[in-house]
Each structure stands twice: as C-alpha cells, then as structure tokens.
Design brief:
The structure holds 2 protein chains of 2 kinds. Chain A is an all-beta fold. Chain A has strands spanning about 5, 10-15, 20-25, 30-40, 40-50, 55, 65-70, 75-80, 90-95, 105, 110-115. In chain A, strands 2, 4, 5, 6, 9, 10 and 11 form a 7-stranded mixed β-sheet that branches. In chain A, strands 1-3-8-7 form a 4-stranded antiparallel β-sheet, with no helix packed on it. The chains are: A mainly beta, B mainly beta.
Chain lengths: ~120, ~110
C-alpha cells in the first residue's frame, strides 16, 4: 500500500482565496483524521470521520473550515475564505479502527499551506 | 480523557539508551498508552503501544508501571536518526497530541 496520500504538498495562495486540501486514506481503514500543525499551537486535531461520517468536528476553528468524506477513499478539507493565520502544515491520518489499534494512526506527508 | 506530561526536551549520547518518561496519572482502565515520534517536517510515526504489560518491537521498548500512572519509552541504542519529537498519548477514541519531548541525540 502506498500509505496515506495527501495533495498538494505545498500550496501558496492569497488571502481570501478558497483552498482545498485532499487526502486518500489507506484502503480498508475506517477512521480518517485531519490535523493542523503550527509552531505556536503544535499538532491540533481538527475533525475525524468513522466510516465516512464526521464524528467530532469540535476542533474545526471556525465556519471558514469544512471537511467532507464522500467515500471511503477520499476526503477534503476546505478553507473559504483563507486568511494568513491559516498558514500551517495540514496532516491527514487514517486508522484501521480495531479496538486495540484504534489509535494506531498512519500519517500522510502533509500539505504546507502559506496564505499571503 | 487522560492527560499526559512529558519533559519538553532531553539529550542522549549516540549509542546509549534513550529513556523518555511520560506521566499519565489519570489514565483509566481501558486506555492504552501510545507513543509516536515526528521527525522534522514529516508526519508523526507510530512507535509502540501497550495496556498493562511491557512491550517490545523492532523500534523500541515500552515499560508501563504497575499502577499504570507512568510509562517509559526506551530506544536501546540511539542514533542521530532518532532525533525527533516524541509524543506519549493516552486516549480511547480520537487522538490528542500534546507538546511531546524533543529528543536530541549527541554525536
């Protein structure tokens, strides 16, 4: 398996523009997580899905952020409109969902987002 | 969810064992202890996990105290490639990462 695949690797955009980050989880994994990492705040959980259904979105900073998982092999994180403070590395992770291995997360390489 | 406490940074000489502590005094009976590490600019990588017993795999050993209120991750022969931030996590569902321990391996 190729692992969790994220695209793009780097995104540079201007304030006010819409940004869409993409993630393909590992096949067969039931859980998908979106994280954001900055120097100041560390690694923050934004939202996670179980079997394509959003379970906890309490980490989504505000209404400008939205996440979808239309099927088991694809998820998007959208920011509209983007702001400079959204600049960060965004990671997607997936997990098999077995009880003991529920937290055994497999991370993608991340998307480095810069909002100018 | 149980909260974890880790030292912000540690140094270890190359070739020596690196022992990274973690306190999780509020852990509940069904919560596992997981360790991840993050090498600069990469996504976190799973290392090991355990419930009650000590665990060992090809990467590390995990020692959990009998009362489960603390644990230690052991890298038996640290190399420069082990320089990373190490996260100790305790939770049943979902994952909340703390600040972790920044491990510096000294040549």
């Amino acid at each position: 398996d190729a692992g969790v695949i994220q695209s793009p690797r780097h995104e540079v955009t201007e304030m006010g523009q819409e940004v869409t980050l993409r993630c393909k989880p590992i096949s067969g994994h039931d859980y998908l997580f979106w994280y954001r990492q900055t120097m100041m705040r560390g690694l923050e959980l934004l939202i996670y899905f179980n079997n394509n259904v959003p379970i906890d979105d309490s980490g989504m900073p505000e209404d400008r952020f939205s996440a979808k998982m239309p099927n088991a092999s694809f998820s998007t994180l959208k920011i509209q409109p983007s702001e400079p403070r959204d600049s960060a590395v965004y990671f997607c992770a997936s997990s098999p969902g077995y009880r003991e291995s529920n937290e055994k997360l497999f991370f993608g390489s991340g998307t480095q987002l810069s909002v100018l | 969810d149980a909260k974890t406490t880790q030292p912000p940074s540690m140094d270890c000489a190359e070739g020596r064992a690196a022992n990274l502590p973690c306190n999780h005094s509020t852990i509940s009976g069904n919560e596992y202890v997981y360790w991840y590490r993050q090498i600069h600019s990469q996504g976190p990588q799973y290392i090991i996990h355990g419930l009650k017993n000590n665990e060992t795999n090809e990467m590390a050993s995990l020692i959990i105290t009998e009362d489960r209120k603390s644990s230690t991750l052991i890298l038996p022969h640290a190399t420069l490639r082990d320089t990373a931030v190490y996260y100790c996590i305790v939770r049943v569902a979902g994952i909340i990462f703390g600040k972790g321990t920044r491990l510096h391996i000294l040549p």
